[in-house]
Amino acid sequence: MHKTLVVVDKPYKHLEIDIDVIHFDQYLAEYPKKNEPKVRVINLCDTQHYLSKGYYCSLLAEARKHHVLPSVNTINDLRDTITETELPTQPLPKNTTAGKQTNKIILFIYFGWTELSQYKKLASKLFSRFPVPILQITLMVDATISIKAIQRIGFSRLNKSQRELFLQKLLEFTSATWRQNKPNKRYRWEMAILVNPDETFPPSDKQAIKHLIKAADKLGIYAETITAKHENQIAEYDALFIRETTKIDHHSYRLARKAEQEGLVVIDDSSSILRCCNKVFLHDAFTYQNVPALKSIIISSQSNEDIETIEAQFHYPMILKIPESAFSQGVFKITGRDMLQTKLAEIFSQSALVLIQEYLYTDFDWRIGILNGRPIYACKYFMAQGHWQIYNHASQRNLSGKSQTLPTFETPKIVLDTAIKAAGVVGNGLYGVDIKQKGNRAYVIEVNDNPNIDHKIEDAYLGDELYTIIMAEFARRLNERGN
């Protein structure tokens, strides 16, 4: 559980809000306290001057292991000279009058919110770049919008109406974003589970997420779902479990990096995302570390010579892959030269490299779940009806094939050994290793970070035990990290 403190420059009358409001001298003299819960500090003191009370408030909070908004780094960032290229851009809103005359606008932003609705996106971007309670922005508006000044101001510099509005946003921020309404049970750790409610193919369905939260609870971990909009609050947690499809140029990767920098236990970590999301890395790694995989090559152009090289090494049909793809998207079965040339041109418009892979049809692909080098589940994913892949995105009725979950001890040893070796190339996180088996040979297709864990599919054999195994690994890593 957390306790939230709001620190102001001096005592104020009539601050009747349901949060502890103290002045700086109290914070200096009375904290830290023995046996206090985790403390979060919202520093509303003026920080414009170096070594001011506001500066020392954030500095002391960090020394006392209190999570503080704004951080000392953010205060220093705002004191430095900021070039226009470092700031978010904003197109001219439709309802803004622009002409020859330049208009100057002073914008107040409270926790990423502003009264002027046409600047809502800009306010949100600036709060993401500079997470502070109150920002004052000077805009110059003519044919375009440019930011001429940005500064963090203290609560004492707001007028009465601004203070009332700010306090309203403060309450919304602390209740919704900093989650004050938690159960009374005491937890040793807190975990954020990153999800995207709008995702078409999430790595875990809602039922699986509920089971994960329940398993965490039994191990002393308070787990709750967050979305990308909570990025600035990630330091509030001890662990991050990513249950949204990951990409490199994406908030999932940035959030993993930020969480690691804050000292959180993260699954899957940014290195795993980087390695798994790009099939070029996996191809090279499998080659150099002798992981049995389907024959593949990487090309960077589609000259006649390249086409002849491809045809000399592969028979039709063959597989073309965009290096970054997921859920069978960006993967194409090529049946002839004309199709090969067309698809290469299409992919090269998006990517500098293309992966060519031999085609091997099987009725199903193995998916072996590996956590910290240990197999935790084994599934057979059957091909979608009338299709050569597990997912058929062109079909509305038969989008995916059936699945069968087996105990790992009933899974062929060659499949398990190959999966463990392939996962070891990537790291010690949670991976789904896709394998094709032909007789007594196993071939790795790819290693997926953030693999599917869905209710009644991957958990069909172990049930709740699967979720407990995952959360127990988090607990082990949190114990190793220490409080």
Labels describing this entry:
single chain; 483 residues; alpha/beta; Rossmann fold; five-stranded antiparallel sheet; four-stranded parallel sheet; 13 helices; 20 strands
Question: Mind explaining what this structure looks like?
Answer:
This protein has 483 residues and is of the alpha/beta class. Among the domains are: 2-79, 3-Layer(aba) Sandwich (Rossmann fold), CATH 3.40.50; 84-152, no CATH class; 183-268 and 464-483, Rossmann fold, CATH 3.40.50.20; 295-358, Dna Ligase, domain 1. The chain has helices spanning 24-30, 53-63, 72-79, 120-129, 160-177, 206-218, 251-261, 270-276, 279-288, 304-313, 337-348, 413-426, 464-481; strands at residues 2-8, 20-23, 38-43, 67-69, 103-110, 134-141, 145-152, 189-194, 221-226, 239-242, 265-267, 296-299, 318-321, 331-334, 354-358, 364-371, 374-382, 403-406, 430-438, 441-449. The strands form 5 sheets. Strands 18-17-16-19-20 form a 5-stranded antiparallel sheet. α6 crosses α13. The longest helix is centred in the middle third of the chain and has 18 residues, at 160-177. The two termini are 14 Å apart. Residues 81-89 have low confidence and may be disordered.
